[in-house]
């Protein structure tokens, strides 16, 4: 596979924008200036309360189907405290409340729970640590896993019937393996080409493109279009030269209608953009001083024909960026750390529906899904908007 090197001029410009963007937009905000961007408000009543004393564990994925039904996946008992949260399931029970909800939950646009399913079953191996959920154009549901031995992908029908398993569970793998996967973070789709894009992931350091029918790996690449290399890398240092490989996890790979793929190189604090054949196009660093979990967690696009806007979840700095997709320019952002509606604790995954609404999930102790109601494109404050609480009407 050919190697594609970054443009030095573009990289320098991207670093400058990312490093200075916060100060520049804050100054604009102080001067009363605005930018044109999608506007949102949190819906504090969505979703409606769950039945059966159900609780969510770390919510690790979100997807939207053809009817704007919202699917989430969470980790349940493995992330719920067995004494303080799920006492009714202790042995013997120690309380009348509560218990884990099934791993996959489907909500309608009004926040009503429609169906819940998932977990181990006949004919497949449920991931030891499920991660990511996506719905294709046929409304089939795809699930990855980032457990230590999760080297496969699961495909279910809309109502949870098992369809296919790609890759063999519990097989060791590497980034050059064309048969198995390496702790998949997320799957997305180019339905017209019948291809799935796999962010692969927590073990491997690549984007893998697979046939949606057979699961066969058709092509793959690493950072800058290089052949992926699994060599151990030192911890991220924002002052060091840009890494020529992805760091783990490669957290998303999002194809667009104009033939591009946007990749979340999470711990490297950057989005890299490719053509669908793996040819490198450009990159941007976002909050590049962020260490640890990194700043680039997940991406969704606006639903206009041009997909003009990109929404970026940053689970370390607890915000969602609204970006001009073509320019990779941050226009504004919303959210803050906290437990109240509109705040975040490790905002992990993000998706948009056909009406323009945005949905986010939170991992670690966040353990929830939120809806941000789309209010149209209009004048908003550049830089930090804070918590998007609904206005009185």
Q: Which strand-content bin applies to the residues?
A: 35-45%
Uncertain stretches: 1-29
Task: Give the second-level CATH assignment, the architecture.
Answer: 6 Propeller
Q: How is the largest sheet built, in terms of strand order?
A: 20-21-22-23-27
pLDDT averaged residue by residue: 92
Number of individual domains = 1
Name the helix and strand elements from N-terminus to C-terminus, one letter apiece.
Answer: HEEEEEEEEEEEEEEEEEEEEEEEEEEE
How many helices?
Answer: 1
Q: Largest sheet, described in full?
A: 5 strands, mixed
The fourth-level CATH homologous superfamily is: TolB, C-terminal domain
Percentage of residues in helical conformation: under 10%
The CATH class turns out to be Mainly Beta
CATH fold node name = Neuraminidase
Shape: globular
Number of strands: 27
Radius of gyration computed on alpha carbons: 20 Å
Determine the N-to-C terminus distance: 57 Å
Structural class by sheet pairing and helices = mainly beta
């Amino acid at each position: 596979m050919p190697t594609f090197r970054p443009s030095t001029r573009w990289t320098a410009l991207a670093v400058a924008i990312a490093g200075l963007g916060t100060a520049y937009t804050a100054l604009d905000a102080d001067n009363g200036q605005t930018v044109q961007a999608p506007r949102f408000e949190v819906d504090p009543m969505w979703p409606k309360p769950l039945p059966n004393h159900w609780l969510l564990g770390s919510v690790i994925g979100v997807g939207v189907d053809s009817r704007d039904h919202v699917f989430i996946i969470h980790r349940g008992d493995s992330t719920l405290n067995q004494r303080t949260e799920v006492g009714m399931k202790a042995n013997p029970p120690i309380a009348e409340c509560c218990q884990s909800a099934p791993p996959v939950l489907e909500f309608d646009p009004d926040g009503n729970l429609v169906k819940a399913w998932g977990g181990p079953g006949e004919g497949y191996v449920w991931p030891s640590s499920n991660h990511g959920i996506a719905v294709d154009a046929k409304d089939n549901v795809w699930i990855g896993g980032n457990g230590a031995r999760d080297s496969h992908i699961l495909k279910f029908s809309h109502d949870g019937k098992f369809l296919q398993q790609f890759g063999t569970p519990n097989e060791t793998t590497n980034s050059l393996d064309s048969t198995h996967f390496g702790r998949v973070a997320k799957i997305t789709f180019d339905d017209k080409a019948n291809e799935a894009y796999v962010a692969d992931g927590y073990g491997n350091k690549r984007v893998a493109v697979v046939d949606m029918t057979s699961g066969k790996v058709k092509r793959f690449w690493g950072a800058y279009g290089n052949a992926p290399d699994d060599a151990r890398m030192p911890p991220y240092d924002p002052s060091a030269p840009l890494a020529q490989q992805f760091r783990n996890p490669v957290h998303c790979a999002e194809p667009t209608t104009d033939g591009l793929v946007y990749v979340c190189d999470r711990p490297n604090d950057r989005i890299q953009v490719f053509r669908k054949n793996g040819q490198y196009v450009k990159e941007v660093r976002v909050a590049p001083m962020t260490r640890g979990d990194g700043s680039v967690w997940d991406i969704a696009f606006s639903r206009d024909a041009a997909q003009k806007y990109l929404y970026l979840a940053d689970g370390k700095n607890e915000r969602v960026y609204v970006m001009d997709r073509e320019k990779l320019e941050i226009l504004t952002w919303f959210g803050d750390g906290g437990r109240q509606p509109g705040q975040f604790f490790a905002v992990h995954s993000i998706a948009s529906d056909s009406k323009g609404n945005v949905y986010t999930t939170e991992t670690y102790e966040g353990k929830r899904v939120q809806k941000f109601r789309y209010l149209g494109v209009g004048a908003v404050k550049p830089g930090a908007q804070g918590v998007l609480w609904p206005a009185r009407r």
